[in-house]
Amino acid sequence: MISTELKTTYDDIYSDWLSMYEGKDDEAYEAGKMLCLRYERPKDKTEKAPTRARSAQKIYDVMMGN
Question: Of 57, 8, 12, nearest to 30 (Cα)?
């Protein structure tokens, strides 16, 4: 499960994101991008990362009522 992996094997992803983006306007976008690049690691990273980041931002905006 992703939440377990992000707390153990991939804990550096969350730590890095937290130190760089927490509380910033683009925090959801950057979280999606970082997860794509460092956790999902698709073959076509440069194409997939921005798409994943935009999706994360859209989901976050809906959750926040924006």
Answer: 57
Long-range contact pairs involving 47-55 (C-beta distance under 8 Å, separation at least 24): 53/29, 54/29
32, 57 contact by CB (below 8 A) = yes
Q: Is the predicted pLDDT of residue 2 greater than 90, yes or no?
A: no
**Sign of the CA dihedral running 52, 62, 6, 33:** positive
Residue given tokens 């730590």 in the structure block:
15
- Kindly list the domain boundaries of the chain, sorted by start residue: 2-63
In this predicted model, what pLDDT tens digit does every residue of 4-54 receive, in sequence order? Answer: 998 899 999 989 999 999 999 999 999 999 999 999 999 999 999 999 999
